[in-house]
Amino acid sequence: MAESLAVQLGVVGAYLLVALAVGLVAYRLTGRDAEDYYLASRSIGTLVLLFTTFATLLSAFTFFGGPTLAYRAGPEWILVMGLMDGIIFAILWYLIGYRQWLIGKVRGYVTLGEMLGDRFGSRRLRALVAGVSLFWLFPYVMLQQMGAGEAIVGLTNGAVPYWVGAAAITLFMIVYVVAAGLRGVAWTDTIQGLFMLGIVWLAVVWVLSSAGGLESVSASMAESKPEFLALGGGLYSPQWMISTAVTIAFGVTMFPQINQRFFVAKDVGVLKRSFALWPVLVVLLFVPAFLLGSWAAGLGVAVPEGANVIPLLLNEYTPAWFAALVIAGAMAAMMSSSDSMLLSGSSYLTRDLYRPFVNPEATDEREAWIARVGVAAFAVGTFAVSLFRPGTLITVGDTAFGGYAQLALPVLVALYWPKTTRQGMFAGIVGSQAFYLLHVFLPAVTVGGVTVFGTTYFTWDFALYGMALSLVLTVGGSLLTTADADERAETFTVGTRAD
């Protein structure tokens, strides 16, 4: 047991050291100006852009939350993440990301708040977008720390406590982000994305081989979980799947670490190739990950409440060193999400809050130090809350996705409709966020058996109604108000002529 534990921790530690070495090399090549630190001087090519976006999304939600949900409720989750979100997000990458890239290339924007604040001549709108983004970033960073803690517990059968894994990923991502900048993050993301894609398929082959082959696994599932083999036989309703797919896809486009990548492509060809290849890449990862969760249910792998299925399945059907390698890769993927989140979050903090409201004359060097201190404080704060484990990985992740999704439609309207006004943007963002927050934090209310305030209305998730409200308030508020002189619609129309 002691020897196996040493091998497992040695593999995880070695992998993390390799990732750290890549970041330190990138630090030597990273400039000290904000554009290079946050956007790698807008010089990212197709392979790196595709895989840094991909790896940034390979979070604890993907590797542990999703397969565990598939273990408990069936493999139809693949339709949500593998197909629906792969396609929907690719479309949104074109509609929102392409236009942001065109505008950002001309105007030199680094953050979404900076772009919208300039468009509408409003520091308060800039701060609002940054504040909302940082608010929902908190639970999603915490999600990675929770996932790392649970992964270490599962891998070592409880020999290493939860807080050690959570603390390790926290320390690593602080050091990494402070040193590397986007260039290092993107390089490491590419290595980790390629590695994780290969290792998860190898895990599928190894588990199948150890369990007697696909026919044997399918027979076990047919016997113990026959509902998993029929479309619609699991616990998912069509309304739930569509609601989840839409809120995740729209929410992803507003994640700071994803949205900021809309600015970094070297040229338009890089951008177009990336969003065209995206659905293929998503299917190649999500299908094997969620099949492993479903197979574990058919094979009778015992998963205690609050635990994750992947480490337990691999411990039972693969050697200790291989299970450790997969978990190391998954932890590295979580750190790809975390370091990107912290890097983008620090840019929102310094450029959209610190510079406009605290010290407009701050030098680039001072801004860089404020960003690094902010990274450390934010990561320590999320770590402290993660120790209380407030909900499952699925519930924490889904809440953050829904919160970000409320931003998407006002941004889309602002990008394409010149008559959008500052008041309309405030109405759309504040109104939908208030609606969503009330539903997240207040208990459901029923009157006479009818839900008047709850998680669903007419079987559809409340997050969709919040999105619809954001659209109505943005358009309606804009129609009822007149643009001020300092609102510059030409900021966006000039940018879109860059093609």
Describe the structure concisely for a colleague:
The chain is 77% helix and 2% strand. Helix 8 crosses helix 15 and helix 13 runs antiparallel to helix 14. The longest helix is centred in the middle third of the chain and has 49 residues.
Characterise this structure.
The protein has 499 residues and is an all-alpha fold. The protein contains 19 helices and 4 strands. The chain has helices at residues 2-29, 34-39, 46-57, 60-73, 77-107, 112-119, 123-155, 162-210, 214-224, 238-254, 256-259, 268-299, 309-317, 320-357, 364-386, 393-416, 422-441, 462-479, 490-495; strands at residues 445-447, 450-453, 456-457, 460-461. The strands form 2 sheets. Strands 1-2 form a two-stranded antiparallel ribbon. A hairpin with a 2-residue loop joins strand 1 (445-447) and strand 2. The mean pLDDT is 81.
